[in-house]
Amino acid sequence: MAILDIKLPNSILKALRLPQNNPRRQQLKVLRKLLRKARFTAFGQQYRFDEILLSKHPGKKFQELVPTFNYNKIYNEWWNKTLEGIPDICWPGKIRYYALSSGTSEASSKYIPITNDLLRGNKMVMIKQLLSLRTYEDIPYSSIGKGWLTLGGSTELEKGAGYYAGDLSGITVKKSPFWFQPFYKPGKKIAKEKDWNKKLEEIVEKAPQWDIGFLVGVPAWVQMLMEMVIERYKLNNIHEMWPNLAFFVHGGVSFEPYKKGFEKLLGKPITYIETYLASEGFIAYQDRQNAKGMKLVTSEHIFMEFVPFDDRNFDSAGDMVENPEALMIHEVEEGKDYALLISTTAGTWRYLIGDTLRFTDKEKCEIVITGRTKHFLSLVGEHLSVENMNKAVQMVSEELNISIPEYTVAGIPYDNFFAHHWYLACDDAVDPAVLAEKIDQRLKELNDDYAVERKSALKKVLLDVLPEQQFLDFMHSKGKMGGQHKFPRVLKGKLLEEWQQFLKKQLVTS
């Protein structure tokens, strides 16, 4: 039985046949739906949702009456009450589930509210993405009906005082539709395992029993799993184990730095499908083969605003100012970086999700993720984005035919001026000096501001080549092993100090 042949409920079919209005109309329709549903909540009453709904310009009125929030602000003022079991705070009813999210640099877990309305919206987007595969050319449709191996965090949920908390993958699996269960791997028992290394070993043990068509997960961990399967069973490539493997669904980080390493593990080309699924909601997905960007979900359950990522709206630490300029979807421009604010069916309101994105096609609402508001380097005005770094690493790895599965960069003082210190994971033989020179040159080509500052206050590019295992060991030391955790591309402050101390300790013990 192929997934595309499954008869879907009439309610889902009706939703999937919504007329394709323009994005502005779609987004205003979503906003009105959110406001109507939440107008009797404490949040809706305080911020006069009824008044917004009566306005001729609800989008502008919404921005006028409702402030922006980051996690700490909305948690301290609102969400903490829902953890005490108080209903109707930011969304109708009690919040029964929370996704635990630590992002890429936060030390403590964030409790992100998850509602049935949010999960329903996420499910609709997943079905739309799946159906979009019908437009792809020259893909093996038989693979769509094979197993979906999802490498995520533990699906075991922690029970709190009237709620459950855990990885979004655990909540999603618990609420997944019946028709998806036969396709889901590694199965509920292994998926519950909290010990990440043990989970990987159990998946490797079961690998020969499965016929996998899809791999789903963060690139670094999926690549590691494939390497373990190949090594365990003495294979030349992963297709000797899973000949029907045809798709890799990825998200969370740019795939560009991993592509070279991935291709070395394959026996034939596969189709890469990018998604933008955060704990706060399913925001975008790639709906066209070989598309440069992902299509924003404009007609379901998320209202989006876009804050220009510039010095007027963000300080040098990447924190958003009190009253930033926020644009609606019809006001954005292609080629500019924006920080994303979302309002959702889980009671997140004008919430800074922390990602920056750029429109590659405004008409199609297609975007690429360019980094994080906190993860960029601009010590002296070089304005170096994660996108610049990813591209440079990809270009150099292809030029030298090496795999660089992880990297991170820090800005440091250097002889009364400044320097960038790169740490790259590479198990291939390579000269660090050559790598530093080539990455520096590529960044000059990609970023004019960087090129200018390299002639001025940015005096040096330092680079250390480390075994990939050291990056994994550091994540393990931070308690951040698992499918949802990504190594931060830029290290600052306390996390940089911890990384430097970790490397010194490793040097002493080696």
Automatic annotation (TrEMBL):
GO molecular function term, any single one: acid-amino acid ligase activity
Domain GH3 middle: residue ranges: 297-362
GO cellular component, one term: cytoplasm
Domain GH3 C-terminal: start-end pairs: 387-492
A Pfam family annotated for this UniProt entry: GH3
Taxonomic source organism: Sediminibacterium ginsengisoli
Domain of life from the UniProt record: Bacteria
Name of the featured protein: GH3 auxin-responsive promoter
